[in-house]
Amino acid sequence: MELRSTAGGYIWEDSIQRSWDVVQEDAGGSLAGVVAELVQAGKRKRLHYDTTPLQRGIIRHLILVLDLSMSMSEKDLRPTRYQLSVSYAIQFVTDYFEQNPISQLGIIGMRDGLANLVSQLGGNPTEHIGALQALRKQEPSGDPSLQNALEMARGALYHVPSHGTKEVVIIFGSLLSCDPGDIHKTVGILKAEHVRVCIVGLAAEVAICKEICRRTNDGDSTSTYGVILNEQHFKELLLASCTPPASTKQKSSASLGSDLMRMGFPSRIVETSPSFCACHSRLSKGGYICPRCKVKVCSLPTECPACGLTLILSTHLARSYHHLMPLRNWDEVDWNDAKQASSCFACQLPFPTAPSSAPRLRVSVSGSTTNVTATAASGIATGGASGRFRCPSCKQMFCIDCDLFAHEILHNCPGCEAAAGGRKLSNGQAATEVSMATTSAYA
Amino acid sequence: MNAVDGSSHVPQVGFASELEEELPSLLVLILDTSPLGWGAQSPPISLHDAVASLLIFVNSHLALNHSNEAAVIASHTNCIKYLYPVAGEDYGASAPKSTATSGTESSEEMITNGQSNGDNGTLNDASMYRQFRVVNESVMKQLDLLLLGTSASDIEHNGTISDTTLISGALSTALAYINRLVGGVNDNGPKVRARIMVVSVCSDLASQYVPIMNCIFAAQKMKVPIDICKIGNDTVFLQQAADTTGGVYMHLEHPRGMIQYLMTAFLPDRALRKHLVIPTQSSIDFRAACFCHNRIVDIGYVCNICLSIYCQPPADGSCAICDTIFDPKELADLLKKPVVVTTNVPKNKAKKKKKKDSDATPNFTPGP
């Protein structure tokens, strides 16, 4: 947080800003307009995405470390830090496997100066969620030990093949760490093994956490270590780890990270009489047959329990394509160009018409906070608050809900898809798309 | 208002709004209007007959529940178009409006005329249920405008008539429309359940694979099933769409009986499908085809940077799509062949080939 204010002195020397003055009733005495503006401002803030197509590690192996120490029984987050962390961890598990279906996850807890394995490194979300639900019934106690947790994580990630990423995400609510040895040595070993650590702090910034993040992420500690401001921010920081991390250049030539992996693509069978599946020994009437050893497994993606071959469907690979080819940001349209479209191209919502000389609230977005200041416009509507967003490729206009939907859930631009000739891509991207299509459409 | 007898005073298990069966349902129908596609289907069924069947289907959907809603989107070769509801049109007008191209008629004439003049097929029957008439008129009028407005240059591509249709654009638009209508989920759950139905005549387009997969995953996240009514050749992408989202895929063998397929397999909505056995295609081939030879592979090699699939490790040691160079040691590991050891030959003449691969068993015959 910046200590110097823009006026030159310290921020505590500035005049008092009453943030509650923002909410003012309009002529009719209602707050509906102010609330709507605040909601719009919140939506606009979420619209800045990083859309450079980076090379990302798609096969991920991530260890989630939870702080189960005494400081987690603080009640500054409802109902307690502990309960909220476990709830968000369950949501993290669901989102992680949705975004990265061929990856694996393990969970470790720090309690009483020791590290406990909550859930083994595996690819099945129900197991992890079951283990987390069982954690809810326990009480936090003792002190956390970062070194023990990192050593256990390192051991769990030791056998990961070189084409997978090794990551650790720590939810840390304390201000200290009780370690049996020299934690700096551990951090050095982690760096040598290419393990990347990311920490979400709940209390305050702790120097050792910053050091760990800085050393394991090639000097970048701002995007990997975050301290939460409120519950919403906690969720954002935690779920930001669901996106595959960008690959760094700091890999030695021996382990380039670019590998060819052998995978099996089983086909589904439907049987007339039930038979056992190899993974759970449960009777079922259908399943998938491993192409190498012909054993039946009940769900994908999984590793064949008999021969160890990774079994996936081509749809699981397709889930990660939007990380490799992200959707471009759309530009906000100001009132001068706003007359070109009267309704949203995708959902047919009628756009608001240009206002006349009535006073409007001007919304400005600055940094991580949003200031909504009430100013009386002089009759000329300025600024980008026309509520229209234009895609730079197809030049169609969309409303803010469609913008959020397209960038967060759909990852397609409806206008570009609806134009003959498809998206305007660079040649490399177009070639990639065509080849991906031919690999999944059989002749 | 759906109760016809006086049984509403009998206490029910839960409030009506909490039961999924009572929630109104939104049906978004995506109609593929590619001229070449329908031209190829012309002997058994024409676009005109199909649209007539589909309008009956949409009317039946609206009749099932007073609050049901519908939307129709046309997927053309070079654009997509909302056939109903169209932005800017006011559907609350009480007086029936004429859509006849021969000029406007006064309302008295229409009432006395009763049925429409059969030449241009518009439905001016003032005694038709208003919701049905509004949808039917809008669809017919917008479809006429769309097809009449298509010039030869729109459907030609490099000199040949293209068999393309913008299914990915139509799916994206439909999902955005559903997102707006279902949107704001409050504590009681969504107020409307939505589903998409696609009537398709064209085959797959390789360039639309990634956008269609994105639409499928978005539909899966929003819990919107995608039903497919396929006339003509089978498609892989749409089969996967129906399977992943929990929809129904039917390939019409006798397209002339389309209305029967629609009414039995596609009309029941999500809540009813739990209680019925719906005919759908269950054998779906999920195997992939390799990029280099387009062979179907059971065991493939996947580049972990760009996720492209090969049937065997590429000869030059680099990925053809993303140009990453693979580790030669790893490639050599993948190419190892199993050891062949023969035990009937005296030891000094036994030949050992390359080192044993860990997942292959040696091929030997046990001695007596």
UniProtKB/TrEMBL annotation, chain A:
A zinc finger (C4-type) spans 290-307. One of its GO terms (molecular function) is RNA polymerase II general transcription initiation factor activity. SMART domains: C1_4 (SM01047), VWA (SM00327). Keywords: DNA damage, DNA repair, Metal-binding, Nucleus, Transcription, Transcription regulation, Zinc, Zinc-finger. The keyword Metal-binding applies. Pfam families: C1_4 (PF07975), Ssl1 (PF04056). The keyword Protein transport does not apply. Component of the general transcription and DNA repair factor IIH (TFIIH) core complex, which is involved in general and transcription-coupled nucleotide excision repair (NER) of damaged DNA and, when complexed to TFIIK, in RNA transcription by RNA polymerase II. It is found in: Nucleus. Belongs to the GTF2H2 family. Its main location: nucleus. One of its GO terms (cellular component) is transcription factor TFIIH holo complex. This is General transcription and DNA repair factor IIH. GO terms for biological process: nucleotide-excision repair; regulation of transcription by RNA polymerase II; transcription initiation at RNA polymerase II promoter. Residues 61-242 form the VWFA domain.
Automatic annotation (TrEMBL), chain B:
It holds the Pfam family Tfb4. It comes from Lipomyces starkeyi NRRL Y-11557. Belongs to the TFB4 family. Component of the 7-subunit TFIIH core complex composed of XPB/SSL2, XPD/RAD3, SSL1, TFB1, TFB2, TFB4 and TFB5, which is active in NER. The core complex associates with the 3-subunit CTD-kinase module TFIIK composed of CCL1, KIN28 and TFB3 to form the 10-subunit holoenzyme (holo-TFIIH) active in transcription. It comes from the Eukaryota. Residues 110-123 have a biased composition (Polar residues). InterPro entries: TFIIH_Tfb4/GTF2H3, vWFA_dom_sf. One of its GO terms (cellular component) is transcription factor TFIIH holo complex. Gene3D superfamilies: von Willebrand factor, type A domain (3.40.50.410). It is found in: Nucleus. Residues 94-123, 346-368 are annotated as: Disordered. GO terms for biological process: nucleotide-excision repair; regulation of DNA-templated transcription; transcription initiation at RNA polymerase II promoter. This is General transcription and DNA repair factor IIH subunit TFB4. Its main location: nucleus. GO terms for molecular function: zinc ion binding. Keywords: DNA damage, DNA repair, Metal-binding, Nucleus, Transcription, Transcription regulation, Zinc, Zinc-finger. Component of the general transcription and DNA repair factor IIH (TFIIH) core complex, which is involved in general and transcription-coupled nucleotide excision repair (NER) of damaged DNA and, when complexed to TFIIK, in RNA transcription by RNA polymerase II. In NER, TFIIH acts by opening DNA around the lesion to allow the excision of the damaged oligonucleotide and its replacement by a new DNA fragment. In transcription, TFIIH has an essential role in transcription initiation.
